[in-house]
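Let's practice the habit of predicting before peeking. Look at the sequence and jot down your guess about where helices and strands might fall. Then scroll down.
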Amino acid sequence: MSDQTVPRPSRSQVRAVLASCIMGTTVEWYDFFLYGVAAGIIFNKQFFPADDPAVSTLLAFATFALGFVARPVGGLIFGHIGDRVGRKRTLVMTMLIMGGATFLIGCLPTYSQIGLFAPVLLIVLRLLQGIAIGGEWGGAVLMSVEYAPKGRKALFGSTPQAGLALGLLLGTGVFAAAGAVMSDSAFNAWGWRITFWLSLALVVVGMIVRLRVMETPAFRDMEQGDGAAVIPAKELLADADNRRNLLLGMGARWIEGVAFNAWAVFSISYATGTLDMARQPALLAVMAAAGLLLVLIPVSGALADRFGCRRVYATGAVLAAVAPLLVFPLMHTRDPWLAGLGIVLALGVLYPLMYGPEGAFFAELFPVRVRYSGISVVYQMSGIFASGLTPLVLTWLLDRAGGGTGLLIGYFLLTGVVSAICTLLIRTPGERSSKRSVRSGQGSSRISSASTRTPGSIARNGIAT
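Done guessing? Here is the structure:
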């Protein structure tokens, strides 16, 4: 179907789409990160047996990790729905599930009130959070990219990516602000619940914006043409090019997940535990990096529109791989300013080169009929080893190296090389079609040339008539 089959959206419609995408991803990441902040401060004491504080904390963080395990499940479920019934309706469902689960976490009775039912209910709601965010990312990216005008797909695709930074800022900032204006006893008793209840207000605003937008032109074109895939996952895996891009996409994302979780999560424990630095400077550095992300994510998206998503993303992968060679020495000075500078450089300046163009880059890997399923599998499946396991892997390597950073640097270099190679090997459906067209055109020109030869010229070239 041509681009003119469905009328192109107006500027006001496009603005509403972008607003709904960034609002939705902000709500989703706010809820996701808020849980992580509360896990080691509130949940370990109020939702698990308190006989052994270390065990309680481990159990609390285990429930945090469950969210990463649930995300691929959400990607598969909502990827199927998004490819079958559309992006908009799927995103309405993911926002309602995430907001509802977060609000209910704020309502849960504690372990002292209902015993083992408290951690069980907490785990169920955490799984719902993971499932919801597993479906949110792919849909928000596609709403932005499939509404984008020609030449601005990476810039538009970077809009929902900025929700990561906003969610990180809100999740940590609201929790810190609530603790600052209340006494410790009041905050631990009921004040922390307000931060979870606020999610409901964010969801209401997000739903008002999200319900105003129409389905994407690309999806409507597809519906009027070949129609939606009956079983998107089956169709996705049946094509060899799709299978190749699934594997290469997950490989390309490896260093992106490692870089974010290394500097946003692991760096805090490394600075406070291994280097014996104060926690506050490390937290402030991560928040400063998140603020810088808001600015540089769209900048990197614009650069990707100018120079190509593959080129910008591969550059970011290489720079992320070598960043520890500078960041760890800065942190080893134990100077709060220099250590913070290293974290801000790695997370706030270099990381956006990958995260900005990532949405448009991954969306280009698959045809419209299976695109929601495809990018959700790439992003969420790779999240298990690229994101969820990174703090654990880095902690284990640090222990094996006796506190040295040599193995950590080696791990960054390995993941960066793998990701850069996978990025360069990726071929999008458009690129494959162009190559086939070129080969077909060359063949046609040869046939045309032969058909215009005279009988005499054919005889002279030894071709029988």
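How did you do? Residues 11-46 form the longest helix (36 residues).
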